[in-house]
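Lest this sound abstract, we let one protein speak, letters for residues, whole numbers for local backbone shapes, and leave readers to judge:
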Amino acid sequence: MIASRWRDLRSRLHAQLRPVDVVASLLLFACAFPGSMVGLPGSDLRVPWWPGVLLAGISCTALLWHRGHPRVTVAVTTACAVAMAALGYLLTVLLLGPLMAALYSLAVRVDRRSTRLYALSAATLLVVGTDLLLDPSDHSLDAKAVSTVTILLLRGVGPAAWLLLPTVLGSTVRLRRAYLEEVKARAEHAERTREEEARHRVAAERMRIARELHDVVAHHLVLANMQAGTAAHLVRTHPDQVQEILADLSGTTSAALRELKATVGLLRQADDPAAPTEPVPGLARLSDLTGSFEPAGLKVTVSTEGEPRSLSPGVDLTAFRIVQEALTNVTKHADTSTAWVNLAYAQDRLTVTVTDDGGGPTPSGPTPSRPAPSGPAPSVAPNTGFGLVGMRERALSVGGRLRTGARPEGGFQVTAELPLHPASLEEDRIR
């Protein structure tokens, strides 16, 4: 049992003691030998050297635990220094070395308030307590040889200054370490913030490309399906019109391939020579968009209110895609052959309204105004699905808003209010 406790104690001592602390303690202890033999100028030292060396050895031994117990180390070294002064030793830097090292370690490891408290207490005990403990008539001094100013400097100001130096130095080191840790923490936080921002940008870019792909595929495939269904319906009764419809179908698929290539090309690197160079669609191509619905049996009327203004690239693309998706929904879901697009320009906003007078979703079979498609008609209500979600996300991405709903007089209406020149991340990506 005793052997195991001894092994545990020895292992703890090895864990706490460091070679640098042992070397420093030995060097400070070596300084105690000449320090215990120094006296005031013009006077003889009447105290033997060995008590000072013994007290210095106790102080240096206490320094071995200054990392784990800095306050206790300061208390022990202060008591030893006060004892030396009480015995009559002159407290030079040689004897105050252990206390100075303990105060430096304390200032590095604890808060400023505790450091000041311990440093002032140690200085007070050395300066004031020593004078109270010593007999004024027995200072081993020759009054003729040593002036009062010299005594004050060597016994009062000197020890206080030597204790102040390591305290200030240790506090400076602690503050610098705290500053460096704060800088490191801020750098790590900035790095995490950049990574989060990069992930956010990647997610937003994926959503934008997903919306582009949805709009392109939905628009052109719906038109192609309508044209193919019309051609199949007329191949026997009006074969002379089939050729024109098939030509329109070829143009629709070609346009779909071009827009898909341009959209997927956004995933390429910026320096890729094969990157697409086709311009981003906008309201300048609105006539081509509305004309593409005519082969599918939908006539679109476009009207403009106010003086047309220049739009930022993001708003221009957003307005075009909202009109495209709204007309595609009319083609898929509304029982009508007529739709209206209104562009209302205000001082700082553009209001896009797409209206139809259809009867809502088509349950089955052909509509009276358009030939039957080759497959069953969709039965999705106009206020469900990803189309309206995508339009709403597009409007929000440039700082606008979207309203959709059925009209009291019949049909469905999509209204988008968009700022002319927003300041958003989506706008920066479009540029």
Observations:
- The CA atoms of residues 67 and 105 lie 7 Å apart.
